[in-house]
Structures are given as C-alpha cells and as structure tokens.
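Human: Here is a favour to ask of a fellow structure person. Comparing notes only helps if you start from a blank page. I am asking you to supply a protein in sequence and structure-token form. Write it directly below this note and I will take it from there.

Assistant:
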Amino acid sequence: MAAGFDPSGRLPDAFTNAGTSSFTTFLSKVAPEMLPGRRPLPPGMAADMAPHATTIVAISAAGGVVMAGDRRATMGNLIAQRDIEKVHPADAYSLVGIAGTAGIGIELMRLFQVELEHYEKIEGAMLSLDGKANRLASMIRGNLGAAMQGLAVIPLFAGFDLAATDPARAGRIFSFDVTGGPYEETGYDAIGSGSLFAKSALKKRFRAGLSMDDAVRLAVEALYDAADDDTATGGPDLTRRIYPVVMTATAEGTHRLTDAETAAIAEAVVSGRMENPGG
C-alpha cells in the first residue's frame, strides 16, 4: 500500500484540499522520491552508464518557430538507439527538445508537460511563454545534484507567444544551462554534442523572416551538418527510413511533420549534398 493512504482507500488531504498550481511542488510534498532530482545516487560519475540524446535545433520563422532533433542516442562510443524521439510538444503552443541523459530527459519532459497542464486546470488560464520557460528552469535546477554526477539534462524550449504584438515575430526560443539559468536566444539555437556544427551552419544561412518551409529545410540541413562532423549525431538514415523529428509552433498550435514530409525534405538534402558535400 502506498505511503500516506489509509486502509479505507481514501485519498490523503493533500489530494482533496485546494493546493498549488505547480504540479512539481505538489509532487515534492506528496511523493518527493518520484522527482528525478530527488532520487539517491551512488557516489562518483555516472555519465557512461546511461544513453545520451544529442542534437536539437530551433529556428524562429515568420509566424512561429521550428524545432528539429536527430534520432540517435549514444552510450560512450556505441549507438544505444537509432530512433529515439527528442522533440515533443510541451503544450498547445510550445515545444521542448532534450539533450543529455536520455532517460532523465524524457522523464523531465513528461513532468514539464504535466506541470503546464496542471497549472492550466488549476488557474483556468495558460502560463505565458516566459512563465513556461521559468517553470522549466526551476525543474532543471532541481536536477542539479544528478547533473554534477554526469547525469545532466539540457533542454531547448521554443513556442509561439500568444501575447506578442506582431504575430509574424511571435516565435521565441529559450536555452538553459545546467543550473537552470534561462536565456532567450535570437533567431536560432542548438544544443547537444553536435550543436557547435549545427549553429555554425545556421549562422551562415539564417535570415530574419524565413518562411516556415525554408526554416524546416534549414533545420534539417543543420542537423545534417552536425551529423557530418559529430559521431554522436545521427544523419538521415535512408536505409532504415529514420529521419529527424521536425515540429512547428504557430498561432494554430503545434504540429509535427509527417514521416512522408520529413522523408521528402531529408532525401532532398541528401541528394543536394551528393553534388555539393559541403552544402
């Protein structure tokens, strides 16, 4: 029987009384052992004990934002998984991508999704985009102990700002450091082991006011460039038909490109690189 439940099966008072709008705060009171950063860990570094997710890119475009991630997870010099999904909707108008320790990252991302849904149900309103970024920052900060032992998670957060005065410039991107510090990025950003190469590609080709279609193509090209120089980043796998996960956030909400749409873009990028490998 779970701790805190009486034999009659009635829920504890914490579940029935008016509580906080933060699900993470609620969980820290009711079941703190379920939070990723509150679990006891053995001493020493543990970075090589778990698969790591790699490269995510985000690009602001006219009318929204694009986020894309490769599909590879690594464990040391081995490929742990070829088709992991690192980019997900955080809520109806925002996206989150993860790099770092894959298991903790996925758990943190799901907890963040519940956090935003819980807030909206309790308060009857959606958090602002800045508020969402700050909530994610506090959750990353809660994982600091594990991060110092090598189990770090660094997310990338982006979304459509419903409060923006100019819908064409409403796509915003936030990056974070391992201590939870949030930073708004201008135009584009990338995280993960291949981020240096992805950002170098984006730096040369990004232009303010890109159409969503052009931004999607640029995101896939940046991931290709990252995979070209970083062994931990997976490029389009034409043999297994494994392609990047590409999502958009606009005034209409979040949208994931279909496998067929992503395949067409990835195959066009690969075809172009056959003639010009450097892009």
